[in-house]
Write a structure and sequence with these properties.
By secondary structure, the chain is an all-alpha fold. It contains six helices and two strands. The chain has two domains: 101 residues; 53 residues, no CATH class.
Length: 199
């Protein structure tokens, strides 16, 4: 793949991630991860919750004074279930936190990190060459920091791609925006500059 398309694709991917939002992507990836690797834990969590609801309902229907032995047994069962549920919830929360850190690192590496790496690796390469004297004395600025004179550097191309994508995003948002109805503001005849002139 040519350098022009590679850089444009990376910038587009970075902007796409920012449009969608990292939290939305994280939630989607976490749901997918849970469905594939953690279905046993979530099945157990649902099972414990269902058992707790049934046991709590039975506990509420049991009199502590009339049926103390049964009430105490149900109470111990509820306490044990709550402790097990709390432990399982803690394990799942720890797993989600670790997953979140790894996912955020992966997203950073695939977007920003790759842009830095490509920018550094191709720092002395020209993305493309401009026709001679096209921008006059400003041509050398497009080659900054290390590209050959008369060319466009990787850094400048990344900035140009990002700007074009952002302008495209704004254009699409403006086209897709639902026009809002103008709000009618009532005008009081006794208030305003014309009312002051009359008095």
């Amino acid at each position: 793949m040519s350098l022009i398309i590679t850089i444009f694709s990376l910038v587009f991917l970075t902007e796409l991630v920012s449009w969608i939002g990292k939290t939305v992507l994280l939630d989607f990836a976490w749901a997918l991860y849970c469905r594939m690797f953690m279905s046993v834990q979530y099945t157990r969590q649902r099972q414990i919750k269902a058992e707790l609801l049934v046991t709590k309902k039975e506990l509420l229907q049991t009199s502590a004074q009339d049926q103390f032995a049964k009430w105490a047994k149900l109470r111990r069962s509820v306490d044990k279930g709550l402790a097990e549920l709390e432990k399982l919830n803690g394990e799942l929360a720890t797993t989600k936190t670790a997953f979140s850190a790894k996912f955020s690192s992966l997203v950073w590496i695939l977007t920003t990190g790759l842009q830095f790496a490509i920018g550094w690796w191709y720092r002395k390469s020209a993305v493309f060459y401009l026709p001679p004297n096209w921008f006059g004395p400003l041509t050398w600025t497009l080659a900054l920091p290390f590209a050959p004179p008369g060319s466009v550097s990787v850094g400048v191309w990344q900035m140009a791609c990002r700007r074009v994508i952002k302008v495209g995003e704004c254009t699409v948002k403006n086209i897709m925006a639902v026009p809002s109805e103008p709000i009618a503001v009532p005008v009081d005849a006794g208030v305003g500059p014309s009312a002051e002139k009359k008095s």
